[in-house]
Design a protein that fits this description.
By secondary structure, this protein is of the alpha/beta class. Helices cover about 30% and strands about 20% of the residues. The chain has a three-stranded parallel sheet, with no helix packed on it.
């Protein structure tokens, strides 16, 4: 991939903690893609969820918002 041509965004639940925040972040991603002459749908949107940050329902709730392609669930469990 050529320098300066990101193909996705890794957001953190700490900053994208509601459907409205995810929708706004997706709008910014789409606007930047259009401005760069790229198709917004080509970007992958990943939400990083750290240990102890959310209740179990949060990924399901945020997963209802169009645009999140994947969740990364981190754990502090060494096993």
């Amino acid at each position: 991939m050529p320098r300066g041509q990101a193909r996705g965004r890794l957001g953190a639940h700490a900053e994208l903690d509601s459907p409205a925040a995810v929708t706004e972040a997706n709008r910014r991603i789409d606007d930047a893609a259009f401005a760069a002459g790229r198709e917004p749908a080509a970007n992958r949107r990943v939400l990083n969820i750290g240990p102890g940050l959310v209740h179990p329902e949060a990924p399901a709730e945020l997963g209802q918002v169009p645009g999140i392609d994947m969740f990364v669930l981190m754990s502090d469990d060494p096993g």
